[in-house]
Design brief:
By secondary structure, the protein is an alpha/beta fold. It has a single domain, classed as 3-Layer(aba) Sandwich (Rossmann fold). The chain is 51% helix and 16% strand. The protein has six helices and five strands. The chain starts with a strand and ends in a 5-residue tail after the last strand. The model has no long low-confidence stretch (mean pLDDT 95).
Length: 135
Amino acid sequence: MEVVFIDANIFLEIVLKDKRSDDCKKFLYRVLNEEIKAYTNDFIVYSCLLHVQRTDKSKMKDFIVFLNSFDMLEIIRCSFSDMIGAIGYINTYNLDFDDALVVSSMLKNSVGRLVSFDKHFDKVKGIERVEPAVL
């Protein structure tokens, strides 16, 4: 079974009905049907909620209900050691803290594939970034 980590932009595409939301829906449908094992972290969830709040507060509850419907999505709680690890990735790969925390969470949990539209992850060793349409 394919194992992936899901970045914030995949969820936000759907919730905010952006141009690539159909590809993201098809991908998440495969997660829902347990064809793909998926992880994300709690920081991603909070970041998405903050973004949705800034964009359209009325969609916040819908986003939480949407995420809660994915029983097979494992949400990793970030530890202080994950955060310290992220600082190293900030320096090594010139990433923002949130992206470095994604890398830290992935590598700690032995997840090698990241579903994301953010191409700056392509420079990170040990991670393969793929877009939802590829899966």
